[in-house]
Design goal:
Strand order of the largest sheet: 5-4-1-6-9
Strand content: 15-25%
Number of domains: 1
Radius of gyration: 17 Å
Structural class: alpha/beta
Number of helices: 9
CATH topology: Spore Coat Polysaccharide Biosynthesis Protein SpsA, Chain A
Shape: globular
Low-confidence stretches: 6-21
CATH architecture: Alpha-Beta Complex
Order of helices and strands: HHEEEHEHEHEHEEEHHEH
Distance between the termini: 14 Å
CATH superfamily: Spore Coat Polysaccharide Biosynthesis Protein SpsA, Chain A
């Protein structure tokens, strides 16, 4: 959780420059939904192409994992849970360092089965707090997304609370994926092989939240990707 000074810093950013293009009503809707939001931070990948754990890389005065938690906490999310590979001592040590509560860690005992196995673990997890109505399923290696993008996604979901919402750029759906409770619970029992396959089985189409954020198209999979992201998005690495 954020300390007082950190929360003031992120609140100021969220309510001024980074959210200047949206109306007060949209901001209020986003704030309201965030108070009932659970965040699934996917952090069980092997980082094979990076050759070192991606979420432990430095970003904004902390690690990528720490930055992601800080951002969602600053957005007002009610609960943030991190899906880790069982036995990943380095990740556990980093979560201890940034004071991420142990009770908000979900262990994936078969991370080799891919990202969707982590999502299914999260959907089956019994540790979610009561009162959550929506979940944001977010990739661990997206520290460079604009805060405005995430706020717009929350506002989109608040306007259509029964539907799945995704950011969309140039016609392509991207992550994070924001799902209502009814859909999130289905993820624990679905026979679909991937999240994309699962979403295609839903009776209603996914709602696209159109945003012009180049970071949505930027992957951080290799050392070169990481260095490029550091160079392209210095303003998104600010820390209190």
């Amino acid at each position: 959780m954020l300390g007082r000074n950190e929360r003031q810093f992120w609140t100021k950013r969220l309510h001024t420059r980074e959210f200047s293009g949206h109306t007060a009503a949209m901001e209020a809707d986003a704030n309201s939904l965030a108070r009932c939001l659970g965040v699934v931070l996917l952090a069980a990948g092997s980082s094979r192409r990076m050759k070192r754990p991606k979420l432990l890389l430095p970003w904004g005065g902390t690690s990528i994992a720490g930055h992601q938690i800080r951002v969602w906490d600053g957005l007002g999310a009610k609960q943030i849970a991190i899906v880790c590979a069982a036995g990943d001592k380095a990740m556990q040590a980093e979560l201890d360092r940034i004071k991420s509560p142990a009770e908000n860690r979900i262990l994936n005992h078969a991370p080799q089965n891919g990202m969707f196995s982590s999502i299914r673990c999260a959907a089956r997890w019994a540790g979610w707090t009561t009162g959550l109505t929506h979940w944001a399923i977010t990739l661990g290696d997206q520290p460079h997304l604009r805060l405005e993008t995430l706020r717009a996604l929350l506002a989109c979901a608040a306007a259509q609370p029964g539907k799945v919402c995704q950011p969309r750029r140039h016609g392509h759906f991207r992550h994070p994926v924001l799902v209502p409770k009814t859909v999130f619970l289905q993820l624990g029992t679905t026979r679909a092989a991937t999240l994309k396959d699962f979403l295609e089985t839903l009776p209603e189409s996914v709602v696209g939240c159109d945003v012009d954020d180049p970071g949505l198209d930027q992957d951080i999979d290799t050392p070169a990707d990481y260095e490029k992201a550091l160079a392209l998005y210095p303003s998104r690495q600010q820390s209190p």
